[in-house]
Design brief:
The chain has one domain: Porin (Beta Barrel). It is an alpha+beta fold and 331 residues long. The protein is 19% helix and 40% strand. Strands 1-2-3-4-5-6-7-8-9-10-11-12 form a twelve-stranded antiparallel beta barrel.
Amino acid sequence: MHFIFRIFSIGFVTFTLTTTTFSQTTLAGGRGMFRVFSAQTIQAGSIFFNSSYLSFFKASGNDRTFNLSLTYGVTNNVELTALAVPYQDDQKHNWGPPGDTQLGIKWRLPLASSRFSAGLRGLVILPTALQHNAPLEPYSSDQVAWGIMGLLSFDLTNSFGQLPLKIHANFGYLDHNIETLLSKDGTDQLLLGFGFKFSAHPFIIYTEYTGEFFLGNSAINFGDNSMRLGQGFKFLGPFNLIVDFGLEIGLSHGLKSSPQPLHKYADWKIFTGLAYHFKMSKVHGYAAKETKIDRKKERKALEALKEKRKNVDQDLKEKRKTLEKGTKKNQ
């Protein structure tokens, strides 16, 4: 048991050393898992380019989507994101038209500790798609949409030293027509997301639940809304590329008829992604200073964790010696 604990500790420390140099970003950009956002932001002066591909194929219809996103760390507490969809299946043509464009900003609130972070995310969706409310996809309108989200993150690494677990929760509001601000037209949505992840060298393994729920529409039941459960893996690949792959299972009811704004959503999707990270600290003096401070904090936390585990090893050795002496005396 002691040997297994030591092997796990060495593996965890190695993984921590390799992963503190990069963060994970979401489908839409911004630090997080695949769809669920973290309340934390990427380091100041950092830029992430993301590409992701989602695919659903069945005799009744295929759905393939290609996304490109960009994340920029303005400071260690603010990040900007942009999402473009160059290709989205319309179930009619071999090459689908583009989808909508999303712009976002995240602010990590000063209410933070080593175990807890809170943040706010604002987003605007520009109707650049040629076809809106596309089959098998979450609802979209042909108007400019806006939304706001509250983000919570819990780092339980110190509480469960042998399991570096992190939990993220998202909740928000999406108005699909900025011109009818906060009016009840039956298409406004509640946004929910919850997920957890942990490190298992060389992977980051995560599970998440996300959904978009129509508000103020009595004709729509809870199970009719677009929601899904995702299981994914991330790891650091060659050329400093962050590789992402996994599976999403649709949790929506199979609708026999689909009154607007509803339609049938995909039963499942396979997704893959690649992200590349580089820094602009040299031309961003303030960012470089903040990044150095964060790195010092990370190193101190890692050294404290190493020391703590060293003390545990020492205690175990002393207890084993005491037991061995007691066994010899009894003999």
